[in-house]
Design a protein that fits this description.
flat; 3 helices; two-stranded antiparallel sheet; Histone, subunit A; mainly alpha
Length: 98
């Protein structure tokens, strides 16, 4: 059986996803996410030993990966709102671990 998600769990998930939830939403999502995890746990319990795996090969119609000209780096970096031209990189806001 899947663990029951607490309000604290949902609040932590909401913080990571940068969501602002009301108290009612937090309680409702705790119930819904717990039900989803319970269903996923139920699916994991299905016996698939007798299920035959099918291997699909790539179609013969795939084209070769051929290098082609790209956008000019200086033009692209010149149009970026924040770029480090010396390093040739875009600067983006920190998302993970902030």
């Amino acid at each position: 059986m899947a663990d029951i998600l607490t309000r604290a769990d949902v609040e932590r998930i909401a913080t990571l996803a940068r969501l602002e939830l009301t108290g009612d939403e937090t309680a409702r999502f705790a119930e819904q996410l717990t039900a989803i995890l319970a269903y996923a746990d139920q699916v994991q319990q299905v016996d698939t030993a007798a299920v035959e795996m099918a291997m699909v090969e790539a179609p013969a119609t795939m084209r070769d990966d051929v290098p082609a000209p790209s956008l000019d780096r200086d033009v692209v970096l010149g149009q970026a709102p924040a770029a480090d031209r010396a390093a040739g990189l875009f600067k983006v806001p920190r998302v993970i671990g902030s």
